[in-house]
Amino acid sequence: MTATRSVAETVHLLPQTKQLRALHTIVRDRHADRADLVVTASRIMRRLLDAALELLPYEPHDVQTPVGQTYPGLRVTSQVCGVSIARAGDSMEAELRVMAPSVRLGKILIQRDKVTKLPHLYYSALPADIARRHVLLLDPMLATGGTALAAIEVLLGEGVPQEHIVFVNLLSSPEGIEVVGRRYPNVRIVTSSIEERLNENAFMEPGIGDFGDRFFGTDIAA
């Protein structure tokens, strides 16, 4: 049985460099041009996916170089797939496809009931062998944690172990991290920012607004 990891081991925050802050300055600006937002957010997503792939298991794999020497390389020991939480997660799916063109991709659609506020699973399409894969679960926002929990439950129901799930997101709230960590302590989280708090409307502060609407151009101008 895998030992339960501490929060320090499960939450992987990208180095908070000046360049990353400059990228966040663009995507958080309410007046940002959509083209600038998409290009800049994609740059952050690349960093996030690189960090997530770093968490996978690797094994030695030597290769011969063009000059006849041996390079002591590495390769991933487990097959990988990406699973996006529609619709905002689709923005990260495209970047993963660029980085790993042959990767298999699944999709989960979860929406909140307008009355009960509880997440409801509407659709899932996952690789048949997902239980044998490491899964990069993709959703730009980790706010209350309700949608994340519902998506993780879908993966667990398909036989994916907790420790094989890496949840990749752009922004995380402290509340969401706590909720996911308390329920599923062996699921790892990779994020580019841990926000200050959730407000009374469950939006993160300082936040980024509705990222899916802004990224795909379906937001309504004020």
From TrEMBL:
It comes from Actinophytocola glycyrrhizae. One of its GO terms (molecular function) is uracil phosphoribosyltransferase activity. This is Uracil phosphoribosyltransferase. Keywords: Glycosyltransferase, Transferase. The keyword Transferase applies. SUPFAM superfamilies: PRTase-like. Pfam families: UPRTase. InterPro entries: PRTase-like (IPR029057), PRTase_dom (IPR000836). Residues 15-218 form the Phosphoribosyltransferase domain. Gene3D superfamilies: 3.40.50.2020. Transmembrane segments: none annotated. The keyword Amino-acid biosynthesis does not apply.
